[in-house]
Structures are given as structure tokens and as C-alpha cells.
Amino acid sequence: MSDVLVPWDDVLAAYDPALGLEVHVELNTNTKMFCGCPAVYGGEPNTQVCPTCLGLPGAMPVVNGKAIESAIRIGLALNCEIAEWCRFARKNYFYPDMPKNFQTSQYDEPICFEGWMDVEVDGENFRVEIERAHMEEDTGKSLHVGGATGRIHGADYSLVDYNRAGIPLIEIVTKPIMGAGEKAPAVARAYVSQLRDLILALGVSEARMDQGNLRADVNLSLAPKGSGGLGTRTETKNVNSFRSVERAVRYEMQRHAAVLNAGEAIFQETRHWHEDTGVTTSGRAKSDADDYRYFPEPDLVPVAPSREWVDELRGTLPENPVERRARLQADWGYTDLEMRDVVASGVLVPIEETVAAGASPQAARKWWSSELARRANDAGVDVVDLGVSPAQVAAVQALVDAKTINDKLARQVFDGLLAGEGTPEEIVAARGLAVVSDDGALGAAVDVAIAANPDVADKIRDGKVAAAGALIGAVMKEMKGQADAGRVRELILEKLS
């Protein structure tokens, strides 16, 4: 049964929200965090495992050095302090997808701490303070078979795949985000989106939310308006899209307000997000740190990155994504709206590479943000996985600029590219797509159009030049879109002047 929700304006009038976001980033190392098993997505269940990641007696873990490097680079990019000495701990709890019955993580001694990231929402800046970014291993994956929800409740039985167990994770935990008010849902979305951009720029993860490379847990509480305090929080687990992060915050704010307005107490718990219905449902009681019985991992030595290494890694950081977007927007002359659309469509990088290959910024945006984005949406894939490269897009635009083809014919060239028919030039030749600019052929087609549309021709003779568009359209239809429209217009006006 759905929860009763308080209207949004009533929530804002009575309560102040506090946000906390925990984002898990699955690193793209070749091997797992503490063993040599491949850290790749997919694979037959339980084939990418060994005694160490299965927690078998006598198996000893060894820390993945590349994972430590990635953790430090993430911390530096988030303006964090990097610990001179830290260690792993055992987080003890039972769940079927965790083969050791504990998770090797970090608790009070994280590798990165006290950082921040600024996000902008509707022209207002919000500083999100980072409490810590710590290293840990992922759990396995449960598959609940039977039932209607895919969750354990109502399932006939469950299967466990341990391929993911031991994959390196970085968990980035914010301090409470206060003062966002009505913009709290948008701030949460902006933070996770900007964090993903940063992770991609660092090259430390694929950050694909659909594959679980990046997962957000949304903590939320409400306090009476103006109290400056914190209420009892709930944690909505594993939210896997920017839109859902925003919706989950808004829903929980309205649900919390309904519980509080009824004079009841918020139950500290984890909750499940339901993408299809846009609601959360109760999961389990939320444990406190004491319940996990943390203690130092006895089988791993402490991690003590030298200051020289940290400074060396600082020098490898890429340009900040926010600053990079501002620079590219200025270079390309895009409006704020155009740039927002480019970023939202995920085509910033291909546009940049298309411009570098010789196309104008406006032409590159035209193809990637509209034609190719539409095709990717129809195919159900990311636009960068469509199968058309930035160099090919630039080559198509070069043919348009040379008036070899027009935009309509260019769409057929993209058909050929997706079908693997060769280069844009080869496709134009093989399909006979080149624009016809020969006056003889064009003149004959113009004569046919004039004869078929005498009323339009009379308007043009009377000085209504705008009417020429109808005749141009007729000629283009006759010549299957391959006529040089500019030359057709000139011929029409010459014949009817």
C-alpha cells in the first residue's frame, strides 16, 4: 500500500531537510581488491572467484596497488586530505551474498577525508562537504527467483553469484547537507551527476549506473523549520539514476513529513527504491557502527602512501569537469541551454572530438544532440556506443560543407555507416547520394515544377518571392532530395523574373 504523502509546499513550510549521500564507485582495475581474480562485468556465475574472495580457510588477502592509487586520485580531486597512515577493518554482518560473513572495509581510518565539492543549482552554489572516501570490497549478487518483485520477499528461492565479491570499491560519504530547502532534490541530483563526471574524467571507473559501477545511497531526515537540528534519518539504498536520486529525495521528504505530522516517530531503517512506481518501501533496521563490531583487519598491513607519491598523483589529475565545460562553452559559443542539453545527452566528449576532427561546434552539436542521440534512443544504447565515431561525423559534415551532400542526404550516409558500408565518401558513391548541381538536369526539373504549379508560378511573377519555397520543395521531391536547393532557387527566380 502506498504511503500517504504531505503536499510539497506544506513540507517546505514546516520542515528543513538534511541530506547525506553515500556513493559507491566500482573501480576499473584488472583484478579484485585482495586477490588476482578478474574484475570484469558479466561472466558465467561463480567463475571469477578464488579461495581468497570466497573467504576459504587459510587464504590470505593482498591489497591491490592500483586500487589504492585510484582512491588517492579520487580523494585529491575531491579536495580531500590524504592519510599518511591508514588501515583496513572488518565490518561484521551476515548476508548471503557476502561469502566471508564480513566485509573488508575502512572505518575510523579512511584513506581520504575532509574534502568538498561545489555544485550549482539554478545559479546558486552549494558546497557539499565530504566526510571521507574509503576503500572496501564489493559483495556478491543475489538473484531472487519467483514472485513478482524480484526481491527476497515472495521469492521461491535465491541464487548467489560471487563474481562481484571482492571488486574494489571506493565509498564517498558526504557530511549532512543543510540549508538546501526546496532545492534539496536537485542538489542531490547535481552532486551525483557532477561526481560521476569527475570519476569519468579521472578514468578510474566506467561509472555506469545501469551496471552498478556507481550506486548512490540517499540519506534523508527532516527537522522542524528553523530548529537547525537533525531528525532521524532513513537510507534509500542503491539508487541507480540521476532522476531517481532526485525523485527519492522528494518522496522521502513528503513521506517523513506525513509520519511526523501524524505524531509518529521516523524509524531508522534502510529502504528500497522502486523505479516503476517512484516510491520507497521498508527494508531493514539501519545498524549503527557498534552493531558491525569493527576491528582492524589482522591479515593486511597498514597503508602508508608517501607524500612524494601523493604529490606525483596530484600531477596526474585532469582538468576539473566543471571548469572544462565552462572553457568549452566559451570556445564553442554555446548558450547555457545548449550546453546543458549537451551535458544531459552525454555527448560532450564526442562533440569535442568531432570539433577536433575539423567540424564546426554547431555542426557537431547538431548531429550528436539530435540525429545520433535519436538513433541511440531508438536502439536502446548510449550514444557513444551507437557505432559512429567522431571522425566519421566530421567527415560527413565535411561533405555537407563541400555541398557534395545536404543534411537530408547525410542522414542516409549515417544509415550506411551503421550498416558498415565503408567511409562516408564510399557510401555517397555507392548509394549515388551526391547532390545534383548540373544546370541541365536542374532546369528540366524546375520546368516540370513550374508547369505543375501555375498558381505558385504566377505569385512569384507578381513579386511574391517567398512562394518559391513550394517550387523548390517540388523539385527536391522529384530529384529525391539530391538537388542543390540554392541553385534550384536561383533557376526558379531566373525563369520567372
TrEMBL record:
Top-level lineage group: Bacteria
InterPro entries: Asn/Gln-tRNA_amidoTrfase_suB/E, Asn/Gln-tRNA_Trfase_suB/E_cat, Asn/Gln_amidotransferase, Asn/Gln_tRNA_amidoTrase-B-like, GatB, GatB_Yqey_C_2, Gln-tRNA_amidoTrfase_suB_CS, Gln_synth/guanido_kin_cat_dom
Database matches in Pfam families: GatB_N, GatB_Yqey
Keyword Repressor: no
Keyword vocabulary terms for this entry: ATP-binding, Ligase, Nucleotide-binding, Protein biosynthesis, Transferase
Asn/Gln amidotransferase domain sequence ranges: 349-496
Biological process terms in GO annotation: glutaminyl-tRNAGln biosynthesis via transamidation; translation
EC nos: 6.3.5.-
Enzyme class: ligase
Catalytic activity: L-aspartyl-tRNA(Asn) + L-glutamine + ATP + H2O = L-asparaginyl-tRNA(Asn) + L-glutamate + ADP + phosphate + 2 H(+); L-glutamyl-tRNA(Gln) + L-glutamine + ATP + H2O = L-glutaminyl-tRNA(Gln) + L-glutamate + ADP + phosphate + H(+)
A GO term for molecular function: asparaginyl-tRNA synthase (glutamine-hydrolyzing) activity
Positions of transmembrane segments: none
Function: Allows the formation of correctly charged Asn-tRNA(Asn) or Gln-tRNA(Gln) through the transamidation of misacylated Asp-tRNA(Asn) or Glu-tRNA(Gln) in organisms which lack either or both of asparaginyl-tRNA or glutaminyl-tRNA synthetases. The reaction takes place in the presence of glutamine and ATP through an activated phospho-Asp-tRNA(Asn) or phospho-Glu-tRNA(Gln).
Family: Belongs to the GatB/GatE family. GatB subfamily.
NCBIfam families: gatB (TIGR00133), PRK05477.1-2 (NF004012), PRK05477.1-3 (NF004013), PRK05477.1-4 (NF004014)
Subunit structure and binding partners: Heterotrimer of A, B and C subunits.
Protein name: Aspartyl/glutamyl-tRNA(Asn/Gln) amidotransferase subunit B
Organism: Nocardioides szechwanensis
